[in-house]
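R.M. (postdoc): so does anyone remember the format we settled on? I'll just put the structure tokens first.
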């Protein structure tokens, strides 16, 4: 579970633990990570998913601890919004590095053990923005759309080994990531959502639990949209 010190990632980690999974998390905020580990009894490391070698070391450590990894949720994500005309190379690159390359690093590190196990689930957290676009988020939209192509290609690569790769595309979910929106922006967004409200982290967690369960054993390469009807 990447990026699980708060928000959607924390809700997913808690739900998976409630379903009986042993959970390991990583995040960049070390203080918060230690708090969450202590509170929930998760394993965890302060690892930046953009750092390939740190990710590989984390997966080796988890394999030593557990001997197997059954479910991976690529959830770590950031935004660095701005119009394309003024977007710095750094804002472009950082968003791609965390949201897309991070999922590549983690998936690559776990795929060999999963292939040996002949089972495994990888669930990538994309976004409605990867499907619909959003002005001021060319970097984020590219990364999240990229994650969908990545999900489909890896699903085809690994299906014969019993590994299922799927994605979830949340709409507007109440977390720190969306807290920066003004009240006026939030009201406008709500007015665009057929179900009339923004989502909660647990709405996404429910979809992850489904994709991690035996109930989804015949589903791979797909995206579940959790957006209140924002994009139909
Ligand atoms: N909140 C929304 O409305 C929304 C909508 C669609 C998609 N998403 C996606 O859902 C995921 C979770 O979003 P959230 O709203 O909970 O965000 P958040 O900002 O509340 O949490 C992000 C988490 O990712 C971790 N993280 C960030 N960069 C990292 C890195 N380089 N390495 C490891 N961990 C890192 C943070 O420590 C934190 O735990 C993200 O991928 C985001 O793009 C969110």
């Amino acid at each position: 579970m990447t990026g699980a010190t708060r928000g959607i990632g924390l809700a997913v980690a808690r739900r998976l633990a409630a379903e009986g999974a042993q959970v390991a998390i990583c995040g960049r905020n070390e203080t918060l990570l230690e708090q969450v580990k202590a509170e929930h009894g998760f394993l965890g490391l302060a690892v930046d998913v953009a750092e390939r070698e740190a990710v590989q070391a984390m997966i080796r450590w988890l394999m030593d601890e557990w001997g197997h990894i059954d479910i991976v949720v690529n959830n770590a994500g950031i935004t660095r919004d701005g119009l394309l005309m003024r977007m710095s190379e750094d804002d472009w690159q950082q968003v791609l590095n965390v949201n897309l390359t991070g999922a590549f690093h983690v998936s690559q590190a776990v795929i060999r053990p999963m292939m040996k196990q002949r089972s495994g689930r990888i669930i990538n957290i994309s976004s409605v923005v990867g499907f619909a676009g959003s002005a001021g988020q060319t970097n984020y939209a590219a990364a999240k759309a990229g994650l969908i192509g990545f999900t489909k290609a890896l699903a085809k690569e690994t299906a014969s080994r019993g590994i299922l790769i799927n994605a979830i595309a949340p709409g507007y979910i109440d977390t720190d990531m969306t807290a920066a929106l003004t009240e006026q922006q939030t009201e406008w967004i709500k007015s665009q959502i057929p179900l009339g409200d923004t989502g909660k982290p647990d709405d996404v967690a429910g979809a992850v639990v489904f994709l991690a369960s035996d109930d989804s054993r015949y589903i791979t390469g797909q995206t579940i949209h959790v957006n209140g009807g924002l994009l139909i």
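R.M.: ...and that's the designed sequence above, right after the tokens. Also worth knowing: The mean pLDDT is 97. The pocket of nicotinamide-adenine-dinucleotide is lined by residues 2-9, 26-29, 48-50, 75-78, 98, 102, 125, 127, 170, 172-173, 175-178 (CB under 6 Å).
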